[in-house]
Amino acid sequence: MNFFTNYFGAVQTISRTLDYNLVLTYVEIFNEVRKNSGRVFVLGMGGSAANASHMVNDLRKICGIEAYAPTDNIAEFSASCNDEGLGSYFPRWLETSKISNKDVIFILSVGGGSQENNVSLELVNAIASAKGVGARILGIVGRDGGEAYKNSTEVIIVPTITLDLETPLVESFQAVIWHGIVFHPNLKLKPSKWESVFE
After folding, report:
1. What is the pTM assigned to this prediction?
2. Which is deepest, 83, 98, 142, 194, by most CB within 10 Å?
């Protein structure tokens, strides 16, 4: 039981130490994006790519925000990585989508990307592309936040409680946090199915 005591204890500690004011700021930013007909591009690799798909669904279906996860198109993703190399896809995708200063890139990542350590270069290069056009950089990351945090003071960092559990905790809290955002009454436009069934 020691493992679960540590694991769920870390969940409780993270829940208490998150910056709730920064999470609330995201509600305000997303409202602004929706009002200005901007878009949210949710970027993640590995498990965070799966989270990106889910977050995009919620932003579109519950909040009425135009949102996309580039990794949802596996044919385009694999063709780009095969032909131009890993690190090329997100920047090309954003360029084709004509990303602008009305838009947001939303990074979901355990480490936030690192040029120095050659990790998550897709994210590193996407951040550079977004900065180049003045798009806002948001996200939910762990550790020291990597390139995502270096390039935006608005990125949420899930605090490191237990190093050997960092990946599952960060990826789990990505979902906890974005669900809190999309279900906030100031952002949510439509009910989710099961809540509407039992109202």
Report:
1. 0.93
2. 142
